[in-house]
Amino acid sequence: MAVLELQNITKRFGGAAAVDNVSFEVGRGEIVALLGPSGCGKTTTLRMIAGFEWADEGRIFIGDADMALRQPYDRNVGLVFQDYALFPHMSVAQNIAFGMKNRGVPRAEIGRRIGEVLGQVQLPGIAERRPSQLSGGQQQRVALARALVTRPDIMLLDEPLSNLDARLRLQLRREIRTILSTFDCTSIIVTHDQEEAMGLADRIVLMNRGRIEQIDAPHDLYQHPKTLFAADFIGHANWIGGTLARRGVGAGAVETALGSIGVAPGAVADGPVTLCIRPERLALVDDETGVDTRLAAVVERHDPIGADLRIWSRLTDGTLVQSLEKNIGRELPAPGSAVILGFRVADCIVLPGARP
Ligand SMILES: Nc1ncnc2c1ncn2[C@@H]1O[C@H](COP(=O)(O)OP(=O)(O)OP(=O)(O)O)[C@@H](O)[C@H]1O
């Protein structure tokens, strides 16, 4: 059963819809990321679940209960914010005790739970410190402990890693995932960072201008984007525009400036389409390589990026494309070399519409 359900939620500020007919469910123990560019409505959605904003239309359920008339303090949700929001004049223990006191947890139980939760977030022995005596990562773990210790139905985390530097962010991302799993905690995380969403979430709700663009597991969102926006927002891509004409119900071909390119059967209707080929699925090929499509190109430059080499090449119609080669000491064609790039039908994603 779903722990959280949003049904056709709309929120307008002035005339404009910040959140536009959004529906999704979150299952028990699931970690869901609300992902999208700035202003797409992620935070407003989270604030409506917390009860800080009211939806103009639609309904929100936590368990069986309709949240329509519930104030924030009447919803059993745990909150973690970007800026930690710890009380600076209170010790770590007092910070963690705060929510439990408000919920009437007995004093002895509060003491026991503080010790336990600090162990679980790997911060034993800091109960008497003030927030100012902790690093950013430690403060965020205390904020996490403070929310988790009240045993909320749902944890709501708003950009929890944004204030940390890149290395710490990566480390804490792993820790947060482990901690949330340990507590079997149903969680929603707002982020604009696709890597964070991919690394943390079981499923991603990708938002664009207040609407849901796609809901999928991270891997599926990357491998099977359904729209140009989704393909563009997650990961890198090469684009080839054209017109799709299917032959009956089976496979079809896309007429492009580079010639006719065969595509797999799918749900996209005939007409203008864009082909998306991920850089790791486009390769330098020779006559022997088993690929379905071959495109003539001229190498422009290489970017060494550690385990992979990114090769930028120009196709005959002027399109610049990127392909990845494993960095295993093999000699690569120098800039200016004529090469053939190839890909398989299965690795060519057909998306409706033309890129602007
Ligand atoms: N209180 C408000 N009054 C008026 N407009 C608002 C208010 N809160 C949000 N908005 C508008 O609603 C839209 C969605 O905002 P929201 O904060 O939900 O986006 P977001 O995806 O969380 O963006 P960010 O990543 O920048 O926080 C934006 O256009 C924003 O300007």
Describe this protein's structure:
By secondary structure, this protein is of the alpha+beta class. Helix content is 23%, strand content 37%. It has helices at residues 42-50, 92-102, 107-120, 136-148, 166-182, 194-200, 218-223, 228-233, and strands at residues 2-13, 16-27, 31-35, 57-62, 65-66, 77-80, 154-158, 186-191, 203-208, 211-216, 238-246, 252-256, 259-263, 271-277, 283-284, 293-305, 308-315, 320-326, 338-343, 349-352. A hairpin with a 2-residue loop joins strand 4 and strand 5. It is elongated. Residues 13, 18, 36, 38-44, 192 line the site of adenosine-5'-triphosphate (ATP). Belongs to the ABC transporter superfamily.
SSE topology string? EEEHEEEHHHEHEHEEHHEEEEEEEEEE
What is the CA–CA distance across the termini?
A: 41 Å
The residue fraction in helices comes out at: 10-25%
Poorly predicted regions are none
**How many β-strand stretches?**
20
Number of H/I helices: 8
What is the general shape?
elongated
Helix/strand-derived category reads: alpha+beta
Strand content: 35-45%
Rg calculated over all Cα atoms: 25 Å
Main sheet record: 6 strands, mixed
> Could you give the order of strands across the largest sheet?
6-7-8-3-9-10
Compute the average pLDDT: 92
In this entry the ligands are: adenosine-5'-triphosphate
